[in-house]
Design goal:
The protein has a domain of about 120 residues. Helices cover about 70% and strands about 0% of the residues. Strands 1-2 form a two-stranded antiparallel sheet. It is globular and about 70 Å long. About 40% of the residues are buried.
Length: about 375
């Protein structure tokens, strides 16, 4: 019988490596651990449920780490090997491998594999959304919309799951000029299905501002309950409409009336207001403790990158922006966009980069994260 305690010890060692940002060390340990566990054979894994659960946990974590490092071939190979050990999860494993192929540059192969899975299980919402997400990744909008509409219209599906389809439909329409009404409608439908989608309000406001729907953006910002967020997005709508002086007044009010150590929400907006007012030294202490506590989100990494850029700490800025790029790649829906050589940060990050004041020499080194033509 396998010594599961030995495996647990190795897994703790791998997790410790990830916690100190030594991803390559974690990958090496978990790769060795996976080989030891797979060597036991499917029968032993099936006979010990605790061992099977550990194998799946380690494999999922290892695949995520490999994705982060761009090791797609290794991640795909691992998913395919697991099929023998978890035949009941074969469809999920094949879907994961197909998604990895799309991310790793084998787009048509990955899409064909997902279409095959859809044909086998046409009432599976997650297969339809994965198919749509693949098309969206490649900016094939009409095919993505057809897939997401199929997902949204499936009968006998939980409300929370149908909300996911609406989330993707929002992202699809938000990406296209002239589709703001459809994007807002998808978001509001999603909110009816899942109240947590109301937390997307800032993203919806930014979308409206980007497409120059300033009146609608201001009206929607008024629905925000948090005072910091409300002031920030009202100011953002004013700024993008051309009155940066008035917008700065909104942002200064945030800094004057809302001490950062008392914030219950709106930390990202507070910090963004700081860097828009060229005050990175106030922004960084608001967000870095959150990141260090593993409270990470995509735009938080972008803001911190730009804050350090304003302080002319180029390497630290690049570290945050590189992590934002990978974080955005791994999100669903993704927060990055295709560029001729790789991918760049999303439009809202690029707009912020355009507006904040950064030293020209520093900017020249960071353009690769924001400007398609600057990718090496």
């Amino acid at each position: 019988m396998a010594n599961i305690e030995k495996f647990l010890t190795l897994q703790k060692e791998a997790v410790a490596q990830y916690q100190i940002s030594n991803r390559s060390g974690g990958i090496e340990i978990q790769s060795q651990l996976i080989e030891q566990m797979l060597a036991l054979g499917p029968g032993e894994i099936k006979a010990q449920s605790r061992l099977g659960a550990l194998l799946m946990d380690v494999a999922n974590q290892l695949v995520d780490a490999m994705r982060w490092e761009g090791q797609y071939e290794q991640a795909i190979a691992l998913q395919e090997r697991l099929e023998t050990f978890f035949p009941d999860s074969m469809a999920a494993l094949r879907l994961a491998a197909a998604n990895l192929r799309i991310e790793g540059g084998q787009e048509e192969t990955g899409l064909a594999q997902i279409r095959q899975l859809v044909d086998q299980d046409p009432h599976n919402l997650w297969l339809w959304t994965s198919l749509g997400a693949g098309y969206l990744w490649l900016s094939r909008y009409s095919e993505a919309e057809a897939a997401f509409n199929q997902a949204a219209g499936l009968p006998n599906v939980r409300k929370l799951d149908r909300a996911v389809a609406q989330r993707y439909l929002f992202s699809l329409h938000a990406s296209q000029e002239g589709h703001t009404a459809e994007a807002v409608a998808a978001w509001r439908e999603g909110c009816q299905l899942d109240l947590q989608m109301k937390e997307m309000l800032p993203e919806v406001v930014r979308m409206l501002i980007y497409w120059r729907k300033y009146k609608e953006a201001t009206a929607l910002a008024a629905e925000e309950r948090d005072p910091v967020r409300k002031l920030f997005y009202q100011g953002l709508a004013i700024a993008e409409h051309g009155n940066y002086k008035a917008a700065s007044g909104h942002w200064r009010t945030i800094l004057l009336e809302h001490p950062p150590d008392g914030l219950q929400a709106g930390q990202d907006e507070y910090a963004e207001a700081c860097i828009r007012l060229l005050n990175p030294s106030t922004a960084i202490p608001v967000l870095e403790p959150l990141v260090e506590a593993n409270q990470v989100n995509y735009f938080r990494l972008v803001i911190l990158g730009l804050a350090w850029a304003q302080k002319q700490a180029t390497e630290r800025a690049a570290w945050y922006l590189q992590h934002a790029l990978r974080f955005g790649d791994l999100m669903r829906p993704r927060k990055t966009r295709l560029a001729p050589q790789g991918r760049i940060l999303d439009i809202h990050a690029r707009l912020l980069y355009h507006h904040v004041i950064i030293n020209a020499d520093v900017r020249a080194k960071l353009d690769i994260y924001f400007i398609p033509e600057k990718r090496p």
